[in-house]
Hints:
Helix content is 28%, strand content 24%. The chain contains five helices and five strands.
Amino acid sequence: MITLCTTLDGVDWEALRLDLIADGFHNGRSTRQLRLSFENSTHVAMGFDGARCIANARMLSDGVGNAYVLDVWTHSAWRRRGIARRAMQLLLDAVPGQHVYLGTDDAAGFYAKLGFAPQMQGMSLIVGNYLDNATRRDEPPPG
Ligand SMILES: CC(C)(COP(=O)(O)OP(=O)(O)OC[C@H]1O[C@@H](n2cnc3c(N)ncnc32)[C@H](O)[C@@H]1OP(=O)(O)O)[C@@H](O)C(=O)NCCC(=O)NCCS
């Protein structure tokens, strides 16, 4: 049975990272960085099939008027069953009255079905080298 949770209880972060890599949706975060990025988010939605985490989504919200959605993913073997829609709905239900932003390359149709509309051109900047910060430098050696 598929369950959706709004906590990080029970997530095996190393197994999740390996699944993300195998599924082609990995951006280079170490296992610790992956866990921290979810722990430091204001809202999360995690999908489980039994004990295995097979979907995730997270959101950063200022609690007032603006929020940003990231890391929306359903494992390829579980797609088109409404899992990401349920995950997104959990996130959106948590931020009434807020303007929710996201960036996507190839899932615009998915977000359109949730009511998202295309934005005017956005802008972004990477400060230094991506993922090169204290979360990586402070990493304990493997093992
Ligand atoms: C995009 C993604 C999260 C969708 O996950 P999913 O669990 O298969 O989505 P759902 O089953 O909840 O789909 C909800 C609706 O969107 C549609 N949909 C799903 N993926 C779609 C896509 N890539 N393009 C257009 N429509 C899509 C579904 O058909 C469904 O429509 P319906 O309600 O009319 O039946 C998943 O394909 C994925 O992980 N892709 C790789 C990562 C990615 O691109 N993430 C988004 C950018 S950050």
